[in-house]
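Internal tracking record. Fields below are filled automatically when a chain is submitted to the structure queue. Please do not edit lines marked as system-generated. If the sequence contains nonstandard residues, flag them in the REMARKS field before resubmitting.
Queue: standard
Priority: normal
Entity type: single polypeptide chain
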Amino acid sequence: QVQLVESGGRLVQSGGALNISCVASGDTGDHYTMAWFRQTPGAEREFIAYSTGRRVISYADSLKGRVTISRDNAKVVLTMNNMVPEDTAVYYCASHCDNLGPPPDCYYWGRGTQVTVSS
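SYSTEM-GENERATED OUTPUT FOLLOWS
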């Protein structure tokens, strides 16, 4: 089993920046992909970015240039810049993804962290 714990979600002013983190623990093994998604009520989960075990990175086209994913072994950090109210969502970390797409098909999921952007 793998556990994923996200942290760093908070209220952000429009135009601001935010880092959210996720740490994987448990029986992770090596060379696994970690990814970020987000979801708003009533909407489908939206892919943001992933980093493979060999540090191959992919971003959603709609967010490219505003987000950065960085990885340090079992920790992955998502940095978002120039945030807008439409970025308000629950942000989920996922890991052990196959069929990278994008979007990747991930097996393990965290519980999410709430990010709210005020106008």
